[in-house]
Amino acid sequence: MTNSSDGRPPVLVARGVSKTFRMPEQHVHTLKERALHPLRRTGHHSFRALDDVSFDVKGGEFFGIVGRNGCGKSTLLKCLASIYSCDGKIWRLGRVSTFIELGVGFNPDLAARDNVITNGIMMGLTPREARKRYEAVIEFAELEEFEDLKLKNYSSGMQVRLAFSVAIQVNADILLVDEILAVGDAAFQQKCFDVFARLRQEGKTLVLVTHTMSEMTRFCDRALLLERGSTVMLGEPPDVADRYLQINFEREIATPPQSRTPATLEGGDDAQVLEIWLEGSDGARRAVVPQGGRITVRALVQFAVDIDDPGASMYVLDEGRKSIVVGTTMLQIENSGRFHAGDKVVFSFSFDNVLAPGRYTLVFDIFRQATGPHRVGRAEQRSAFLVTGTLSLGGAVDIPVEPSIDHAEPVSVERVSA
């Protein structure tokens, strides 16, 4: 193992980590089935959950692991924690604490005290340390009124708070966390955030598995993106988050480059929109575009009759069918020329992409301008496009805003009177 460029040595190293499971093709559920068919052979097939994954985590670094369901995130974390054996090499430097399944080891028929002590011992504390830290655990979990209640009578949120409170009492150098922030109410999640801030100040190393990109970009210094057990990307959290969102949605909304989106005509058969597409700032067709940069919406139109000065209007609709961006040729291109039946023309609209993250649909209106706006055709994109971003402020658009906080100038009585 070599030191990183910033001088911090790696404390967790994975080299060529692979994991294959043998999946039975037929399950024997009862002893009777086994007794009646003692010689029956159960076939198996192999499932490769991880395939040659390698990375380093530096001391004091917060490292994220993200990916879609079934990509191998939790399997990788269990390999790092030595819960699963695997092919390849894993080195760890320091004491490891694992938050993979909160509440594992809790006995629902025991009260909080017994469960806290037992669980603390299972996580590496001595019995004396576990008993000594009981009060701190209960206080953090805010369960003082319920400490004599059996765990089977706890709500799921109460059990989560108790389990997390036990886990953070372990003085570990490396913490492995799996989706811990996906549960609990907002107040408890904020307490988790506060704990993470304290761990960072203490120089602890954390490996976080999460589906929430805002959490990953907020806490992690670097991140690993997995897809079908293989490494897709290892880099800065905003870049990884953007690539994750593309993978997560591209199969659902991707539009083939040569696909045709026929128009739903209203008001006549004078024009037909053959195709609508979106281009990124590089000029390539996109079904997914990140916030920022320049994007262009284009529509290929074929006229069925001779027409003078045709125009077009473009509408970007959100998932609630509200118009978020509207563009038209009416105000800027009054004389577009004369076109004959069979001619094709491309209408284009470019704008800075300040759309909030989400799905959008494109609608085009084609109209005559020579005799006043008169719609001759309309088309709507069948497949939506996606805008990705690591942070949504809740508005329809995310226009860059520069905030400031200044001392207010005292207002004198004389100035008010004036």
Descriptive notes:
It is a single chain. The chain is α/β, with parallel strands linked by helices. The protein has 2 domains: 10-250, Rossmann fold, CATH 3.40.50; 271-388, Distorted Sandwich (Coagulation Factor XIII, Chain A, domain 1). It is built from 10 helices and 20 strands. The chain has helices spanning 31-36, 73-80, 112-122, 127-132, 134-141, 156-167, 186-201, 213-219, 237-253, 413-417, and strands at 10-24, 44-58, 62-67, 87-92, 96-99, 174-178, 205-209, 222-227, 230-235, 271-279, 288-290, 294-303, 307-308, 310-317, 323-328, 338-339, 344-352, 358-368, 374-380, 385-388. It has a 6-stranded mixed sheet, with helices on both faces. Strands 11, 14, 15, 18, 19 and 20 form a 6-stranded mixed sheet that branches. The protein has a 3-stranded antiparallel sheet with strand order 2-1-4, with helices on one face. A hairpin with a 2-residue loop joins strand 8 and strand 9 (230-235). Helix 3 (112-122) packs across helix 6 and helix 5 packs across helix 6 (156-167). It is elongated and about 90 Å long. 32% of the residues are buried. Mean pLDDT is 80; it is low at 253-267.
Number of domains: 2
Give the proportion of residues in helices: 10-25%
Cα gyration radius (Å):
30 Å
Number of E-state strands: 20
Series of secondary-structure elements, N-terminal to C-terminal: EHEEHEEHHHHEHEHEEHEEEEEEEEEEEH
Q: Biggest β-sheet: count, sense, barrel? A: 6 strands, mixed
**By CATH's scheme, which homologous superfamily of the largest domain applies?**
P-loop containing nucleotide triphosphate hydrolases
CATH architecture of the largest domain: 3-Layer(aba) Sandwich
Might you state the CATH topology name of the largest domain? Rossmann fold
Uncertain residue segments:
253-267
The strands making up the biggest β-sheet line up spatially as 5-6-7-3-8-9
Mean pLDDT: 80
**Amino- and carboxy-terminal Cα gap:** 74 Å
Find the structural class using helix and strand composition: alpha/beta
Shape: elongated
β-strand percent reads 25-35%
